[in-house]
Design brief:
Helix 5 packs across helix 12. Helices cover 40% and strands 21% of the residues. By secondary structure, the chain is of the alpha+beta class. The mean pLDDT is 95.
Length: 424
Amino acid sequence: MHDIKMIRAEPAAFDAAMARRKLAPVAEALLALDKTRRESMTRSQELQAARNALSKSIGQKKRTGEPTADLESNSLQMQEEMAAQGAAAAALDLQIDEILQSLPNILDPEVPDGADEAANVVLKQVGEPRLPNFPAKQHFELGEALGMMEFERAAKISGSRFTILRGELARLERALGQFMLDLHTREHGYEEVAVPLLVNASAMYGTGQLPKFEEDLFKTTDGRYLIPTAEVPLTNYVSGEIVPEARLPIRFAALSQCFRSEAGSAGRDTRGMLRQHQFPKVEMVSITHPDASAAEHERMTACAEKVLELLEIPYRRMLLCAGDTGFGSTRTHDLEVWLPGQQMWREISSCSNMRDFQARRMNARYRGADGKSAGHVHTLNGSGVAVGRALIAVMENHQTEAGGITIPTALRPWMGGQEQILPR
């Protein structure tokens, strides 16, 4: 959500920022509505002052027995015009808000221009893409051959884009989630939070899922929504609050199920479990002072990278271009892992700095050390990482010629010391 005062001060700069998102100029139309709204508010205030003076005159005349009918008629007319001006200003407020809430965040100056992922920039790479000295299988081929990954039975029960994991693969997925959560809480300074999986519309609006992305959400019959990511409840933890500056940064991590309709993904990744309606994910959220969010973004990305390094998976950090950066983000780092079965890099984590974009929607502020000054906090979120995609990456990168899976050394304590998953 953008501050109309900022647009009023620098309309050309705002239009230039929106142009990077391939949007038409909007400042002139917004400021015309804002001007009319402020004129209505000014007129209403002038009428209120005139009516107050008139009321005082009416009182004086009544005390001396003079007639007041004409003055009272004028007062009534003023009251009616005040109501009309107030209604006009409120309607314009709604119209302005509808436009503002539809506009994406302003991109960081370092974000490269570009229409889609082809223009994303590789910032670093750790490990080399590798192929085993035998034909590499994709995760679903491995899982089905092991008898531990079932898609047809999941479809029988729930429909497409669901998976049933059994036995050691189910345990491996659980171990991955616990390993990540323990790493972030024990070594990276995040506080573990168990979050609700159902949230209200206000929470979805606060983090930017509503109204723009409603078709991607699962909505219940009572008007609540299944969370698409734990970012929603974690970030909304401070909605409507003023946080003392001394409490910042706040760092939360949660392992939760996530739910997405994948409305725009027809025909994409239909085999396997890369794109599911339900999936577990470890989410990191930071709430910071505005001066600290850029450094926090780097820190958060490094925390997600540590997961991949410990799992011994080749990865690269991408800086997303303008056309690929999400609606609410000012700058996003994607982490992509190498999948030898697909012989492709695939995204496994996105770490985004939202600056004050979400905080304005949530009215989340901080109070300075002087106890008086207050501004909006900055919010950041990142997957640390998507558990299902980590399972895929471990399976494909650590597959054996016999069709088994070697468990990464760092993960073995969460697997009871088990070193391999062997074919049955």
